Backbone:
């Protein structure tokens, strides 16, 4: 149980750190983004970049949950659902600021991206153990 709680917290921290760092990257590298952010007057390209930041953060956060607790099959789902519950009220407040496709894209992909990357991270160690079980010096196959 401790490992599952640790996986939840680590996935959450990974999501927050990734989202923060990528958002800072957008401010530095995407012309006009820093000026548009306080007023939420994003161009189409900026909105797509923001959605990409959310997707990458969700994938990394889910992967961290899977790495930390490989036996915790539902941690990625739960963390994604918790973040969804946090973000729904924010998107309701901003409903008229962004187009509906933006809200729906972010909200409908949040949980599945966490779950998918958590599952992939959990399934990866098994395949690595199997491929590393050959005796030293044996040829690498597959």
Residues:
């Amino acid at each position: 149980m401790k490992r599952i709680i640790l996986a939840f917290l680590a996935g959450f921290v990974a999501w927050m750190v990734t989202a923060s760092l990528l958002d800072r990257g957008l401010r530095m590298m995407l012309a006009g983004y820093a000026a548009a952010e306080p007023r939420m007057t994003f161009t189409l390209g900026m909105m797509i970049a923001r959605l990409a930041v959310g997707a990458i953060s969700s994938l990394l956060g889910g992967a961290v949950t899977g790495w930390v607790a490989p036996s915790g099959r539902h941690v990625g789902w739960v963390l994604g659902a918790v973040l969804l519950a946090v973000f729904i009220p924010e998107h309701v407040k901003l409903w008229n600021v962004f187009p509906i496709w933006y809200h729906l894209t972010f909200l409908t992909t949040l949980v599945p991206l966490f779950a998918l990357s958590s599952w992939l991270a959990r399934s990866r160690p098994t395949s690595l153990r199997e491929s590393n079980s050959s005796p030293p010096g044996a040829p690498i196959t597959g």
Summary: The radius of gyration is 18 Å. The chain has a mean pLDDT of 89.
